[in-house]
Design goal:
Length: about 140
C-alpha cells in the first residue's frame, strides 16, 4: 500500500483544499473509493477531511477537500449548501447530521424561505444548519 498526499491533476499541487481527489500513481480518479469523510477543527461547512483509496494500485490518500470535490468523487451534486449525501447519511461541517425533534416541517420551510410539501425529515447540524428531506 502506498500512502501519499493527493496532487491536483491540473496544477500538480498537493496543497490546498481545492485539490481534486486523484491517484498520482495511476494518474486518474477513475478507481478511487471513499474510505471516510470527517470534520475539520474548527468545523467548516464547505471543507471536509477525506480519505480514499485507489482500487487499482492500493494507494491511499488523505487531505482537506471542498464538499463540491468530494461530491464529484461520489458522482453526485452536493445535497444542499455544504451538504454531502453519503450512503444513508447527510454530512454537514464534516459530521453526520442528526434528526431534529425541535423543528416542525413548517418551521423548516419558513427558515428556508420555501414551502415543503408532504412528509419530511428534519436534519440538524451542530452548527445550527437545518435540512428538510422527504421521507
Amino acid at each position: 500500500m502506498t500512502i501519499a498526499p493527493a496532487a491536483d491533476e491540473r496544477s500538480g499541487s498537493t496543497e490546498g483544499p481545492d485539490a481534486s481527489p486523484w491517484c498520482s500513481y495511476c494518474d486518474t480518479d477513475e478507481h478511487l473509493v471513499v474510505e471516510s469523510i470527517g470534520p475539520l477543527s474548527p468545523a467548516n461547512r464547505d471543507l471536509v477531511e477525506v480519505e480514499y483509496a485507489c482500487a487499482m494500485c492500493d494507494g491511499f490518500y488523505a487531505h482537506v477537500a471542498t464538499v463540491r470535490r468530494v461530491a464529484g468523487l461520489l458522482g453526485m451534486e452536493p445535497a444542499g449548501p455544504g451538504v454531502l449525501h453519503f450512503g444513508h447519511e447527510y454530512i454537514h461541517c464534516g459530521e453526520v447530521m442528526q434528526q431534529d425533534g425541535e423543528h416542525t416541517a413548517r418551521e423548516a420551510s419558513v427558515a428556508r424561505g420555501s414551502s415543503v410539501m408532504g412528509d419530511v425529515r428534519i436534519l440538524r447540524c451542530r452548527c445550527g444548519f437545518l435540512l428538510a428531506r422527504p421521507l
